Amino acid sequence: RATGYALVGIVDTGLYVDHPALRQFSATGQHIGGNFISAASLDVGGSYTSDDFNVDEQQPDHITDPACNPGGLPGVPTTLAGHGTHVAGLVGANVFSGLGFKGTCKNCGIAMARIAYGICSPSTGQVQTTFTFATAAKGITWLVDSGTQVINMSLGNSLLDPADYCPTHTKNVWCVAMAYATDRDVTLVGASGNWRIRLQFPAADSRVVAVGGYDESIAFWDESPGSY
Fold first, then answer.
1. Mean pLDDT of all residues in the chain?
2. Furthest-apart CA atoms within the chain: distance in Å
3. Who contacts 142 (Cβ-Cβ below 8 Å, separation ≥6)?
4. Rounded distance, CA 228 to CA 90, Å?
């Protein structure tokens, strides 16, 4: 149902850069119609010293904890990945991929700002992703400067609740970045969160379009009845 054209920036964990429903060209150089634009994407959350254009969700991170890196390797890939790929697919998965699904906007380019970096969970031995207020702000700013018309934030942080956080914390880097985006007429979209009893930041901010999910009966999505 969504038509039109836009460059949609996604602030997330990165994505599977070779996914057949996202990549523009095949391994042999044939155009296959994916919407992911690598030239408009940037990794601003890597644990190495500088930003780069590799936004692969599973790119190795600098992990020194032997619980997650017993072999002392220079880099360890993220164990738990897929969130950014999932979100990118919702935005603009290629209907002609032959995989049986399609994104919301078939003509929308996807620019990914990978704001995540890997940290070790010693109890499980898994490398999990996290981000900071600073990497979120840097990702938003990069996408604004890259010409995106919409920025999607399918993430949140309960430390920045309630809804009026930014008006009372105008110098928070995340709030500054969102002000920078709105001053340039970039539409901000945020996931409503998984609480169900209230919106989570940044979706709760008045400048952000909050988006949630319905089930097939058009009821609020609730896979944990009676639980928050």
1. 90
2. 53
3. 42, 44, 113
4. 25
Please report where in the chains the tokens 């990794």 appear, as a residue: 43
Token output for 208: 């952000």
Instruction: Tally the residues of the chain.
Output: 228
How does pLDDT run across 169-218, given as a tens digit for each residue? 999 999 999 999 999 999 999 998 877 777 889 999 999 999 988 788 88
Structure tokens at 44: 């601003």
For 205, other C-beta atoms within 10 Å of its C-beta total: 22
Angle at 170 between CA 131 and CA 185, to 5 degrees: 80
The predicted structure's pLDDT at residue 82: 94
Kindly list the distances between the CA atom of residue 7 and the CA atoms of 14, 71, 155, 188, 213, in Å, as whole numbers in the listed order: 16, 41, 20, 13, 23
Q: How confident is the model at residue 77 (pLDDT cuts 50, 70, 90)?
A: very high
56 or 2: which carries more pLDDT confidence?
A: 56
DSSP-assigned states of every residue in the chain? ---S--EEEEEES-B-TT-TTT-SB-TTS-B----B-GGG-EE---SSSS-BS--BTT--B----TTT-TT--S-B--SS--HHHHHHHHHH--GGGSSS---S-TT-EEEEEE--EEEEETTTTEEEEE--HHHHHHHHHHHHHTT-SEEEE----GGG-STTHHHH-TTSHHHHHHHHHHHTTPEEEEE--S-SSSPPTTTTSTTEEEE--B-TTSSB--SSTT--
